[in-house]
Amino acid sequence: MHAGAGRLRQYQKRVILSASIHFPSRTNGRRESLSGVSPAPSLLPPFSFPQKRKEVLNADTIIEARWVIPVAPKGVILENTSVVIADGRIIDLLPISEARTKYSAPEVVSLPESALLPGFVNLHSHAAMNLVRGLGADLPLMDWLTKKIWPAEGKLMSPEFVREGSWLAGLEMAAGGVTTTSDHYFFPKAAAEGLRSAGLRCAVSGIVIGFPSAWAKNNAEYLEKSEALIREFEGDRFIRTTIAPHAPYTVSDDSLKACAAISDRYGVPIHMHVNETAGEVADSLRDHGERPIERLRRCGLLNDRLIAVHSVHANDDDIRAMAAARSSACHCPCSNLKLASGFAPVAKFLAAGVNLGIGTDGAASNDKLDMLGETRLAAMLAKAVAGDPTAAPVFDMLEAATLGGARALKWEREIGSLEKGKAADMFAICLGTPESLPVQDPAAQILYSAGRECITHTWVDGSLIMEKSQQTVYPDPQAIERARSLAAKWQSRI
């Protein structure tokens, strides 16, 4: 035995015997010491364990809202909720009362009459075309293109035109709660510069079209520039890219197959006008012996990266094929109505499980970059076309305008819903105005009652890019004057 072991046991015995540890008597309830003698008075002061202090966590911004509609999970409306932001990301969603004790932030935004939603994802825009807004009213699509738009673009097209027009469009979109737009236009790098200057995220497109333009002279140059664009912005946090064959009627089979190869190589979406008019379908049957969707499948483009913009004249076979391939449809109802292109089968897309997004198209054919108005019109048209008031329900349409677009762009892990870990891209809409009162169903009243003018704040990556007040709308106080000057400059050149 180790010599110290015996001394340790003796020491422990002495301590126990002299300790004033008491137990209640089973007979008379009196306390007695283990040694049977009365305990000596304690020489130590009273002691109690300290209460554990709750740690206050630091954040950059806390937004307190009457309602939060996160979109995912679908159908959820959170009341009196704070969205907590740090480093551009959502780090928590919790009741306002809890957030005030758990978090501290230098900026707290209180919105007691407002709802917070994820920023709109405009799945199809031609942003710079707002500089040709108002040209060619009341014309069918091909007359509008050949007699008005393409001649005007021939005079104006340049990186400067695209950059400045995209910035101007970005201001309008930010005022309507758009935080991301997927743009389909020439000089895509200039478009990205303009849209980012307005504060938006964007996906810009490597255009491929079967005739020369100011951006490229032939198919080989279109493809080469598109691939270079994709490589340049690979991994960028705010700018992504797509490959964008313009439409089946303007792109050859060989070019379509080359676009498919680029999409496969880099994993980028395919952003394309498809099934926009009845004439397009008839021409495809005449020239190729197959419908546009069948032709895209033959050329390798019908897959989960395809964004089939418009899809007005998709028939049941097209819808089944798109659903099986997990392709996306982008609905642009205002443009389709103005150009009398027709009515997209939205209810059928939703029923078949086709991912649905919403786009404004360009301001030249819309003529307004208003995603809330676009989504409202899409919902109501879908009910009328289906003959069913339950078609295209509120939460499905809010999802289409946000998370649906993000999914189509393969960006859903970052944007499209208000969830922990995602980018803090969102907008606030006030429901305390006469057109929205009383608020009995916030989600339905946002879609059917409130207007773009009720949107008061827009954030991208946690940064405020638009706030409506008596003093200012945009962080740059000179933005409106600059916008007027740019519009006048380009109008004089048409």
From TrEMBL:
Classification via CDD domains: ATZ_TRZ_like (cd01298)
Membrane-spanning intervals of the chain: none
InterPro entries per record: Amidohydro-rel, Metal-dep_hydrolase_composite, Metal_Hydrolase, MTA/SAH_deaminase
Record has Hydrolase as a keyword: yes
Keywords carried by this UniProt record: Hydrolase, Metal-binding, Zinc
Residue ranges occupied by any Amidohydrolase-related domain in the UniProt entry: 116-464
Official protein name in the record: TRZ/ATZ family hydrolase
